């Protein structure tokens, strides 16, 4: 498994520019027909600009100058035809420019669609460890800031850079053809301009990087304050929050001011340098014309070429920072896409089965209420083991980091239909055990068996489909209450959803909502109380109808009255199922078949409620209030 991805600061330069750009080109190349038309359009547009300018020499030398000496209808007719031809060429260039701009927008949209799709697909295939080591804001920035930078580059920068490069090449060629002497003057002035771009652009780029970093800090702080407004107000922290925000905002303002100052200064400086170049070129050109070395038309056309030469170079310099920012963002996206997906070498699958008269099992397509593990063997045979929910830990050692052990030599056995409870202080390893049952993490030492099968042999989706989990932090999705309960079993009928809600005692409060089961949930269930949200989570687990249930503080946000009301329903839900319960409220685990007391990653006591009370050990202290859970 790949290690945690090193986050690249927003606005940082890409580490491998060529490789990153080639990967972006791979996405663009999927629209080859459109791309060919775009390149053709850019070439025509740039070519039209060069061709139109070059015709000035013909207009002046062949028509205007002769007509100043002696007017004739033939010269006027030729002059008008040439002007119309120039207009046609410029019109063709304008239409080509419009066409490739629109097509490039389509290409960028389609390319971003593919990038987002690949990004989301990879995200969904990543292990839980990845999300435990990366913040949500860090991941969201890939979908927002980084993709937006790529969009800007693809829709504007790429086409502008290609167009400018073709224009510069064409114009420079014509300048050399028209006058090598004036071309030397332009090159000398260009050298000065490029050094100005390097000096000013380098400082602008540095401050733009700081601006991006400070934007991230400000946005992160605002998001944090929005989520914690209740805490801010309860502890009267408003003024401190304002001061902290002002400091971050001032840093952003300073960086933005410096960045935009240099960026805005660049254009006037480049503009004035181009004016100086134009004036110097005009003076030198006039001298050459007076001495009969160049024609008037040549000088005028050349002067126009100098305009067409400096403008694209300025455009390229303007796009440089945008391209670098986009490539840095693309590199961050590709780093995530290149992350190793969750490994799964399991080959045992979960299937529907029916029981034969001799007690054997046969695989069937329809849901029968009987599940079996389909276990193919090396000799070509396949065995079917009924899913009963027997879970065994055999000397399991585990740590999230190599140098820090969380669980030490954990051994336990949960028989089918038993309720096993884990109690202990925060950090004792209770939730870690349930994470290992789900194979969110794999154990380096020891064995975990499910119905006698090593869970490493079971495919992860099939293993998790045989379980349902109710977490302390309930997450509800945008949609109706019916949809959220059905999340536990996507093909559940309306009757099954209603039965699950009644079982969890959620039906009564749901019916009192404005639209009942069709009530829309938004903002992770912000319109519901914490207890109501947990009831929905329990109903979601109930509709899944799995052989194993994991309840991680499932009733922590439910008051004692509601807890008593749903206790019978929960008992019905647990009937015939193996249940793992994590609870700080010890009243919820009294009826467990076995209670495991954990301390520092080890099971220090085990037994049922009465046995542990009789031992008068840690559980006795916890239950009688002599020692509080922390």
Describe the protein's architecture and organization.
This protein is an alpha/beta fold and 630 residues long. It is built from 18 helices and 16 strands. Strands 10-13-14-7-15-16 form a 6-stranded mixed β-sheet, with helices on both faces. A hairpin with a 5-residue loop joins strand 1 and strand 2. The chain is elongated. 33% of the residues are buried.
Topology:
Layout: H1 17-28, H2 32-69, H3 73-125, H4 128-132, H5 136-178, H6 180-227, H7 229-234, H8 238-290, H9 296-337, E1 349-355, E2 361-364, E3 371-376, E4 382-386, E5 391-398, E6 407-414, E7 419-424, H10 430-437, E8 445-450, E9 453-454, H11 460-465, E10 467-470, E11 479-480, H12 481-486, H13 494-503, H14 507-511, E12 520-521, H15 530-544, E13 548-552, H16 560-574, E14 578-582, E15 594-599, E16 602-607, H17 609-615, H18 618-624
Helix pairs in contact: 1-9, 2-3, 2-5, 2-9, 3-5, 3-9, 5-6, 5-9, 6-8, 6-9, 8-9, 13-15
Keywords summarizing the entry:
single chain, 630 residues, alpha/beta, ABC transporter transmembrane region fold, Rossmann fold, elongated, disordered N terminus
